[in-house]
Amino acid sequence: MGGFRPARDHAPTMPFPDDASRFACADQQAWTTAAIRRIEADFNRSADTHLIPMALPGFPGIDIYLKDESSHPTGSLKHRLARSLFLYSLANGWLRAGSTVVEASSGSTAVSEAYFARLLGLPFVAVMPASTSPEKIAAIEFHGGRCHLVRNACDIAAASTQLAREVGGHFMDQFTYAERATDWRANNNIAESIFRQMEQEPHPVPAWIVCSAGTGGTSATIGRYVRYRGLATRVLCVDPEHSAFHGAYRASVRGEAPPATPAPPSRIEGIGRPTAEPSFIPGCVDAMLRVPDALSLSAMRDVNRRIGRRVGGSTGTNVVGVLQVAHAMRARGDTGSIVTILCDGGERYAHSYYNPDWYAAQRIDIEASDALFARVADGDGDLPDLDFVSRHGGA
What would the mean pLDDT of 350-360 be, rounded to a whole number? Predict the structure, then answer.
């Protein structure tokens, strides 16, 4: 009927030099599709993590909740990050069948990445500080990974880059990609999950969400989600005694360059870094608080008593931040809710935070700190004057 018809013998051609290249591309595409589907199927088998109320009678009208990330299959908040990093790498074409996955980690991210690497049948190597807990090393090896230990925490990224190059593998680089690998708009990220679970609570929009920084990815996700949804919640990021994030945030608020001297290694595993990592976005955070390690560990022990189970040290750091803003709310006569994160369980720290000899070796007077924190948590005392920095003023 006059319309153009291509000649039957002129089939479209693919831009491959030969059949072997075409088949290799098809094989890689099929593998990537299957890998993504396997990760998504694993997600569909998992329930969401619980939101646990924690009573603090000394703060009437202020409801406290712990988002229990220890209930993930690999036992920590980092399970979400590992899933996102694998999907991000697959979608970018960085992972191939047989690739060795390499990650720089203080432990929990490596445990979770080992889980996903085994799910895809990929070798996994964790590059970690030599001080990493033996419980975390055992967990990585349980999931089929192997551990490459380095003496200085500042060197794990460089060692990971070198190792990935030597074995022809892929360096995941959580410290760079955490903030961009996670879909902060939705996809059941931790912020969306918190707000959905809070819908039926007396104060469904939290006054504050308190989190800590290991990569900076969690604070970036929560801060972006809050702004995207137009919510009144503020984000407090807490930092352990030895870490560079707090100093970098203060410099950002003041319009200054971040400190050049690296911070000492953090004693609170999973959070704190010698330098502020690329995934830490100061503009996503409303305030930061530096928390002494002794106070973090006393808060950890207090949470154990209140909820009847052991948690890790980073959860204690978070709870100190909760009390900081709860005290300010009570002083103003405000009511509302505060949500923080139970990052992982205490079973990974039997050799350290649950061992009296460790406190003696670290010269931490835990008895005095425990007594102080118990009074504060019960509403009968005040926190010491901690280093609180806000881009908006007070808490």
Answer: 95
